[in-house]
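pasting for ref. prot 1 ->
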Amino acid sequence: MQSASVLSDFLLKNPVFTLFIAIGCGYLLGRVRIASISLGPVAGALVVSLLLGQFGFKISEGAQSVGFALFIFAVGYQAGPRFFEVIRTQGVQYLLLALFVVSTYNGLVKLRTAVDGAWAQIDVQLKRRYDLIPNLVNTVKGYAAHEREIFERIAELRSQAVSTTARGGEK
């Protein structure tokens, strides 16, 4: 667990290294084949970058520009001079990839918002409980004063009863 924390701290402090980790891991993810489908290195890098971004890893504006330029270069290199042919033959794949990326990103944002909302509700409940403590203390103090008055009154009446009984027994 500590090694994961050390790696996380290292990646947070070195955004350019994080960019190249995203590219490398994306390349590896792109090579994974499930049945006859694979993402490819460009889409793999995009998915890994989105996931890293969701976990709070940020890179500088310059590194973002380099990463975007590399992404555009890779897409252009794949399509290249056969752009229209690629769009005709693989356009559905690119459309499905875009829909996958958008829906994954939106799902992650939705989950993050739900978690933030849940934490906010916990904060509200804790604040409400904290605000109720003075009321509870005042109620207990009031009841303690009332109880003290009752016991004093009982002691007084008992004293009167004992003294009345003692006087009645002397006759």
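and prot 2 ->
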Amino acid sequence: MRVDGRWVTWWDRAHAPIRWTAPLPALAAAQDWQEAAPGVDWTEFALSGAGEAWRLRVILVRIAPTAVQFRLAQPPRRPDGYSGRWNVRDAPPEAIVAVNAGQFTGGPWGWVVREGVVRQPPGTGALAPGVAFTDRGQAVLLPPDSLPLAPGVREGFQSYPTLLAGDGEVPRALREPGLGVDLQHRDARLAFGLLRDGRVLLALTRFEGLGGVLEIVPFGLTTPEMAAVMGAVGCARAVLLDGGISGQLQLVARGKRHRWPGLRDVAMGLVVLPRAVPPGRAGDGPDGSGDAGPSTSPGIESDRAYSGALLPAILNFGVSVSAATTRLPATKSAARTRPGAAIGPP
């Protein structure tokens, strides 16, 4: 963060906490939450670090589970036997939020529950919790060994690795090398978290180099750094979703669609709908569910669109990588210089 004209580190690996007990006050001060819809609000803030993380933007979406519906969108298998493909453009017009769900190995990996029916059994892994939405309107992160017997789950999927467990605890595998998690790899990140008041928090990172022109480039944080972000914004529990070129998010806020697309379609998505929407509208895509596909509702526009012509530039664009520290703007006024602006040292 900037203090008296200097950038001050708020997290580094050598002195990283093993547990986050509350939001980091300086990071909270950099956030300017805005309502998108009843029960849904969002904000953006900038981080600055070394190497690939020298200019990053973090998009946060905060959701009250009792005010909305969560539904999984999973296109049926294609005639050739391969899993169907989904992206946020397939979300139904009434969707407030759409995001890719879980991890993928051709099709969705691990446990999948749709409309109260288990569609796939759990995968194995100590850091692979279930993300579940219950009949009572709650969102929970379930330990992997409890998934076969989890009652009352309406929609659910599995992902990995755990970023925060218990009450803000950083798993040992994210603090010590050689325990099954790559602690050095950098990528665009997407995470699902639970705040201590029961609300859901989605977090997506985007590269802000060259003024955001190459925002879709999958440069970003390490897994421990993303755990720190989720802890610093107040999550008690959190898990990574598929990031990199798969990470994608769409938000409709006050009639305007904000879309952060991925470069790759995925096997399953998660959509957030108003409570009043009837069953059967998950946005599985025009190839299977009968949903209309992308919204063409009047008054809704996409303010983030990327051309395939960027791909050669993405593949040829390189930066040096070094062990990063993570910094943030000191004040809310600095973060609001321009929505989504990269704020950091020159």
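The chain has one domain: 20-321.
The first strand starts at residue 2 and ends at 3.
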